[in-house]
Amino acid sequence: MSEKTAGTPKGSKPSRIRPPSHLFRLNKVTRSTLLIVAALFLSFAVRLIDLSFFEYYLYDLHYRLRPSPTPSGNVVLVLMDGKTLDRFLEVPKFVPHTEVFKNIMRANPRAIAYVTPIMPVALGGSEEDRAAASPTGDDDQKIAFADELRKFEEVYQLTDTVASKDEAKPQLPAPFSFVKVLSAPKTADNEQFAKDRVTRRVAVDFENELLGHVKLAQMFNPKLDGEEPLRYTFDVLGTRQAYIDYGRPGSIKTVKFEDILDGKVPAETFTGKLVMIGDDFQKNLANMIRTPFNRSPVAMTYLDMHANMVETFIRNSAPIKSPSWFDFLITSIVSLITIVAVLTMRPAKGLLVLLGTLGGVVALSGIFFMPFGVWLPLAHPLLAIFICYYFFIPYRLIIENRRSWEYYQKHQLLQQVEVLKTNFISMMSHDLKTPIARIQGMTDVILKDSPTPLTTGQREAIDHIKNSGDDLLRFINAILNYAKIESEGVELHTESRDVNELLTSVIRKNEFLAKVKNIELLPELEPLFSIRIDPELMKQVFSNLVENAIKYSPEGSKILITSEERDGHVVVQVADQGPGIPQDELANIFMKFFRSRNAKASPIKGSGLGLYLAKYFVELHQGRIHVESQIGQGSTFTVELPLQP
Ligand code: ADP
Asked: What is the pLDDT of residues 436-492, one digit of tens each?
């Protein structure tokens, strides 16, 4: 047995209505072209905005998130710091410097580069600031230190000063004038780029002459001498520059100045290495820099900075900035996706796509940077997403607004049509009722009061007229009820009644109809308490079920009508041995004007309103009506009315 409660019909979902905007009325090709042009235009406009500060902030984030690159292992740092000051009660003088130099030399280093000025003069730039870090001592000690340095060809002094071709090269004064001075300027984004004073770049050459960091790196990567091009450089104010491939502070091997003096550092530490000697006395800010890792003015020592610069060239791993055309492409694609998402997608999906795009671009940039050291600028694509979003949202709102206006108009019109229709039906039906009643009255008069006896033919004809009149009246009543429901005009007039009493009256009324088809009506009514119902409406419901059972059942069959109390409900069932209702039609039989295919094909008359009204009336009583049916075996309609509504 299959069961189906009355429900909405299949296929009643409203079809999607095309957005009415002019943009969406254009054909596909024109629409796509317009969107692409808008995206290109917007990305072009967005890229005119200077976002350096934000862009470099994002650039720095890449460093903070990625693991430090593995150092080449060719650079060792010798650090003088606060502890060194404690040890010597001042800045180390020539004597300890001589000792440390000798100790390093014993291990055969590749080169020794002094970041701390050996002498605080003649190097220009920040000499005053850095004088505090230079060794001091009497002339003998100075000469002794100079004599020691002279023994090694590869001793260098780094300086910030860069001399033009027509200027004198920076040089240390006697007795250190033999020391090779390398121009290794510090750069910081003071006036250009992010203007946040962070050191991100290293100068490669000046007036076509290689600067100190590259020269030092060439000792370990000789190919840098033109054979192997630097990975990525760009021009800034007449110099070629590269981005520093920073490791975290402390990632390059560092030993303490005083530990070398005390012989605590194994000799092989320096063998074949570039040894850079510098300080972290924190006496002034000029010896410190801000880095992508940290914006504090004392984030990194000069020593660490120079080491990172040299390491960048030894590894030849300067980050590559993606070309402009590629940035433009990414910005345009992102703009296009945003515009399409805002204009065409449902809000939830659009938001998901936007978040996906946002995440996608950020992830792409991360993936490019972490393993490959390629920097994909993010600021313009991100700004493009926001601008496109806020630019096109109002447009979308206008579209939506117009769409709801059109829906509203249509809805109003439909409502008016519906009212007109209902009024018309009710007026028509009402006016039809009077002539029908008159016809029925006249047939009764002829049948009962005819002065001359009627022939059999005449009697049959009059019977036909009477039956057709009954059918028509039923039909008109159903339509009138329907019209009442549609104009929300049905009211319940409840009174306490025994449902069995109603059923008995309905059965009695239909006995003749059943007899004509030789159908047996079998009532099995259990005693019931009276409940509050509208007797007229419920009579109509039961009548309809019994009439349908008689109408659709074959001759000689039986109809069982039962009533009982169950679970706080009065339950009435009308079960027949009729043809049953096909599975695919079960869901629809309570719909207005629905008639099954078989019923329509048969001579059995009906309006398709009976069950619709029955369901409506039962639900007015807060009850439930449903049907179980099987083809060829019959149908059982069940009405459940609450004992206490
Ligand atoms: P109608 O005026 O057509 O009988 P109803 O709303 O009363 O309208 O019934 C809707 C349809 O449900 C009918 O057309 C018929 O196909 C089907 N139906 C109703 N009752 C029965 C029944 N007892 N046996 C088989 N089919 C039925």
From this structure: 888 888 888 888 887 788 888 888 888 888 888 888 888 888 888 887 777 776 788
Q: Which protein residue's CA is at the shortest distance from atom 19 of ligand 1?
A: 548
Q: Does residue 548 line the site of ligand 1, with CB under 6 A?
A: yes
DSSP assignment string, 104-172: HHHT--SEEEESS-SSSSSS-TTHHHHGGGS----HHHHHHHHHHHHT-TTEEEEES----TTSPPP-P
| Any ligand 1 atom below 6 A from CB of 578 | yes
pLDDT tens digits, 264-297: 999 899 999 999 999 988 766 777 899 999 999 8
Nearest CA to ligand 1 atom 23: 549
Kindly list the distances between the CA atom of residue 538 and the CA atoms of 212, 531, 546, 606, 613, in Å, as whole numbers in the listed order: 104, 12, 12, 20, 10
Record the tokens describing residue 599, joined without a space. Answer: 């019923």
Minimum CA distance residue for ligand 1 atom 26: 581
Backbone angles phi, psi at 135, to 5 degrees: -70, 155
Q: How many residues does the chain have?
A: 645
| Whole-angstrom distance, CA of residue 256 vs CA of residue 100 | 10
- CA distance linking residue 124 with residue 161, whole number of Å: 6
pLDDT given at position 128: 55
Cα(509) to ligand 1 centroid in Å equals 19
Q: What are the DSSP calls for 72-101, one per residue?
A: -S-EEEEEEEHHHHHHHSSS--HHHHHHHH
Question: CA nearest 485: which of 593, 596, 616?
Answer: 616
**Residue 606 CB–ligand 1 contact under 6 Å:** yes
pTM for the model: 0.63
CA of 612, closest atom in ligand 1: 6
Instruction: Encode pLDDT of 15-27 as tens digits.
Output: 444 444 455 566 8
